[in-house]
Amino acid sequence: MSIKLPSSLKSLLSITALLICSPLSVVAENCVVRDFLELPLTQSIDPMQTALEIAYPGLNLDPTRSLVEFPDGTRLNFRGARRVTADKRLEHSTLGDQFHYTYPLGFTLTERKQLYFDPGRIRWEQFFRSLYFETRNEARRSLSRVTYTGTSSQAVFNATKKYCVHVQLRSVLEEIAAYGPAMDVYFEKSGGSFNWRVIAGTNRLSTHSFGIAVDLNTQLGKYWRWDGGKPGSVGPFANEIPFEIVSAFERRGFIWGGKWYHYDGMHFEYRPELILYSRLMAQNDRRPIVHAIRMTD
Hints:
297 residues; three-stranded antiparallel beta sheet; signal
């Protein structure tokens, strides 16, 4: 599916691409839209450190002491990537494990065919609790309503104000709505947003718990468990989410679950560090990268 970009939207993107987020962007009053596909980057000796510190202003990573310090002063000792089985990496993640798979920025489903290729699905839970919230009530108090207003449909999502996630999401939805009524169907029967809960079939907190994830149309999005898949054995993913939607989300720092082996095609979550890490790895000539290509399978 390909839709012509309106000239007014091109102008809007040209402006927002120039905006950068101030170091105080963890609070709503200082938020500006960031374009993580165009944000200037310099070559980095440690792409993981650079990606995390740019993605979350105020966070500091000290690889020499294996220490990560959050804006509120909380400190955690972290471990790097490990040579372990895929299921152990998923169930008992480290900070380094989160970068084991490099998130692909091309609009392709080829890489997800690799067994357990799940970039972004691997999460060290304590990192997210420290980055965002330890409790449901803390998360609830941070929420802001963000609305998709289409030609014939409307969808309301709740996103956290922390790290300006709500502003990034609002920019995504405004861009998608500007494509016109063809986009409306993807926001019907939405799977929702904030929900303090564990991931189905696990005891691990979902990123929905922190107000950083949204699910679009549950019927069009597709989900590996609903399609009868089992861990390590899923069937074909018949994607119905168009390039325009995925691109708009990725530009604002949201990754797409449709690029996972254990696919979740309705799911987008705010993980700008993975977008930046992918760009930095390509910049260091460690992998090829292409932004604006259509789906290949």
